[in-house]
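Table S2 (text version). Query chain:
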Amino acid sequence: MKKDKLHIHWYPGHIAKAEKKLKEQLSLVDAVIEVIDARLPLSSSYDNIAGLLNNKPRLVLLNKSDLTDINELQKFIKIIENNSGYPVIASNTKNSKDIAIIINKAVTLSEPKIQEIMKKGLLRRPARVMVVGMPNVGKSSIINKLTKSSKTKIGAKAGVTRQQQWVRINPKLDLLDTPGIIPMKQEDQTRAKKLAFVNAVSENAYSNEIIAKELLVLLEKKYSDAVKNFYKVENITIEDIAKSRNWIISGGNPDIERTSAYILKDFREGKIGKFILDEVE
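Corresponding structure-token output:
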């Protein structure tokens, strides 16, 4: 990518491979837990999620909710629930109080499939659920959160490759611990840009300087006072922030590279403030 032009790109071959793997795994489970980055409650979900998941029942987890304005997030929870028809829970990996709620919701969503099996004369078995989501939305963290008190591995089931292992969460729930990856095509550069802000896109696909500038433009529109207060600046630019931090290189010029990296780091760690970058349509 050229330094002076923003274009985030990833490869169709990887997308096709990820979709194929996801569809293979879907045949093994009764329901899905979709993990979304709460800072991008709309942009970090796949457009045609119902089609991609073959209309499997799903629980939507808005992860990293501790990095957002929870009152603003409630608006998006209602929108997603209305659009999907499935339950939505605001979650984060620092709080384990919602583990029982997540597990119970997943089991409930799996019950229709289990009833179908029992009508065929088979014995009741635990619900089988897998976790899906875009890169870096916190799939692995959610899996670790649910399994922290349950490390029992279950042997390979019919049709499951040796690499795909199941974890017994409790007697009612088995979790497929190979997280699915929901890919997304990159025609929408606005969405791709937002995914880069939260580090859901490989750093090889963009330059820190350009993404940091784009992030500041968006933050200035929505959260100008918070940014100015955090960096102690009047003008929200990389140059002014560098000068405020006294990050200067030879010739008295602001250290743009260092400052850009820190702006992205500060945002991703929630140091600047608790923000949501999507808008209610």
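Notes on Table S2: The beta strands are 31-37, 58-63, 88-90, 127-133, 153-154, 166-170, 173-181, 248-249, 253-254. The chain has a mean pLDDT of 86.
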